[in-house]
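We were asked to recover a plausible sequence for a given structure. The inputs and outputs are reproduced exactly as logged, with field labels preserved.

PROBLEM: sequence recovery
POSITIONS: 405
GIVEN STRUCTURE:
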């Protein structure tokens, strides 16, 4: 049966009426998912070159520089992701869908209202204060769970925060307290997240909704010393290995190995990533300028891209778009698909690929020295700063080591 999404999109994209001016300024976007509303900020601007938009979550502004208006239809491509917001405009209202081009079954209803800026509620007061650091556990099922650290800041009825997990953070979350229940949301162009929670003394308990069907429960307690396992202990080489060996095609199809002359006697950083991954997006935004500032010191970065489809041309297109968006000067290879088990098979020397991203540091002797699982991005504050400091420390130590004889 054809979904209403497809019917809606056909109507939107076939519209030929006179183009309407799109009001610029603040909009309140809402994605409907699992019986919940995921609100996010949307700011639309216009210049001589056309329209632009920004996704707003707490302190984050994600630029959308591919905004198309024709007749009463609007399409906003979601920067590097293979997704878009498509809608029909009726006055100060947009109605349409959040479209995942790579997986239409994950499409969700979307609407936006011009001039609105509130998140979950306009109420400026709250009788419960959720501020604090919490050690929590997420439960995916009766047998699958993982630890996390919740960091929540509340001022009046405005709440921001994030969750640190062993595989990466949940980025910039923003929300309010509604009827003594915490509501947080984030929409980064690919992932759609809603968190809810209640507080009893220092104990917290909540739900996590992700996209069309993802659901987990979580619970824990205030703990100012809450911490995760060491990110450099989770992914490691199997006994008997001290190096990685692979051959993956670059964006021209040419095989690349670590034995290539350009890597000889250099410190090499491998970035296991996917262009679909928001944490990988954060890491790439860090690595791109870092590489430009340090590439003449004897350092190479190679991105190992694991994409949504086992199609070289599709994967190449996604990586090329990311490189162009963020002026990434280091090289990429197409390593496989975004399945952790299958990714692990492509790098058999590793115990497993636990997270996208994973960062592997290789010394000038070609041996693996450190492996960092996950990424604590700018939404984590001090944790992001510590990652940068540790990153520089590792590279400096590896550069200071003597060249192999």
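RECOVERED SEQUENCE:
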């Amino acid at each position: 049966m054809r979904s209403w999404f497809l019917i809606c999109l056909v109507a939107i994209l076939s519209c030929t009426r006179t183009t309407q001016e799109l009001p610029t300024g603040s909009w309140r976007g809402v994605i409907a998912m699992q019986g919940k509303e995921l609100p996010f900020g949307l700011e639309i601007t216009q210049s001589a070159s056309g329209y632009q938009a920004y996704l707003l979550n707490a302190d984050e502004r994600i630029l959308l520089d591919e905004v198309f208006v024709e007749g009463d239809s609007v399409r906003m491509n979601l920067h590097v992701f293979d997704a878009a917001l498509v809608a029909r405009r009726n006055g100060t209202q947009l109605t349409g869908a959040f479209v995942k081009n790579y997986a239409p079954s994950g499409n969700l209803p979307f609407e936006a209202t011009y001039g609105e800026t509130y998140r979950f509620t306009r109420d400026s007061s709250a009788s419960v204060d959720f501020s604090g650091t919490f050690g929590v556990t997420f439960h995916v099922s009766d047998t699958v769970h993982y630890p996390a650290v919740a960091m929540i800041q509340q001022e009046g009825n405005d709440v921001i925060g994030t969750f640190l997990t062993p595989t990466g953070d949940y980025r910039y979350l923003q929300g309010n307290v509604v009827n003594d229940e915490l509501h947080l949301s984030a929409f980064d162009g690919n992932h759609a997240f809603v968190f809810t929670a209640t507080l009893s003394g220092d104990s917290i308990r909540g739900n996590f909704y992700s996209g069309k069907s993802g659901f987990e429960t979580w619970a824990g307690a205030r703990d100012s010393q809450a911490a995760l396992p060491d990110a450099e202990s989770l992914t490691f080489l199997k006994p008997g290995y001290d190096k990685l060996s692979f051959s993956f095609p670059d964006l021209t199809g040419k095989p690349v190995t670590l034995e290539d002359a350009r890597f000889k006697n250099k410190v090499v950083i491998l970035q296991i990533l996917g262009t679909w991954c928001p944490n990988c997006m954060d890491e790439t935004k860090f690595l791109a300028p870092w590489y430009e500032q340090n590439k003449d010191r004897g350092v190479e970065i190679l991105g190992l891209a694991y994409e949504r489809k086992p199609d070289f041309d599709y994967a190449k297109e996604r990586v090329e778009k990311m490189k162009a968006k963020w002026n990434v000067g280091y090289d990429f290879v197409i390593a496989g698909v975004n399945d952790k088990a299958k990714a692990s098979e492509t790098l058999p020397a590793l115990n497993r690929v636990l997270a996208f991203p994973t960062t592997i540091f290789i010394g000038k002797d070609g041996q693996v020295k450190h492996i960092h699982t996950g990424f604590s991005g700018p939404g984590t504050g001090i944790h992001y700063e510590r990652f940068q400091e540790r990153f520089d420390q590792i590279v400096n130590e590896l550069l200071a080591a003597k060249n192999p004889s």
